[in-house]
Design brief:
There is one protein chain. With about 55 residues, the chain is mostly helical. About 80% of the residues lie in helices and about 0% in strands.
Length: about 55
C-alpha cells in the first residue's frame, strides 16, 4: 500500500512540475500550485523515510 501512495506522490509531483512550466507566472493559481508542490515534497520525504526504517 505504501508503494501505491509513493507512486501517487511521484506522479502528482510530475504533474505539478509540468503545470508550472506551462502556466503563466502571473496566473492567480500559482501560489496554490507552489504550496501543493511543497506539500507533496514533504509527503514524499515522510513516505520514503518510513519505508527505509527497518521494522522489528
Amino acid at each position: 500500500m505504501k508503494i501505491i501512495h509513493l507512486l501517487h506522490v511521484v506522479v502528482a509531483q510530475a504533474f505539478y512540475r509540468w503545470a508550472m512550466s506551462e502556466i503563466n507566472p502571473m496566473h492567480p493559481d500559482v501560489p496554490k500550485i507552489v504550496r501543493r508542490q511543497q506539500e507533496l515534497n514533504e509527503k514524499y520525504r515522510r513516505i520514503w523515510s518510513r519505508q527505509m526504517t527497518p521494522s522489528m
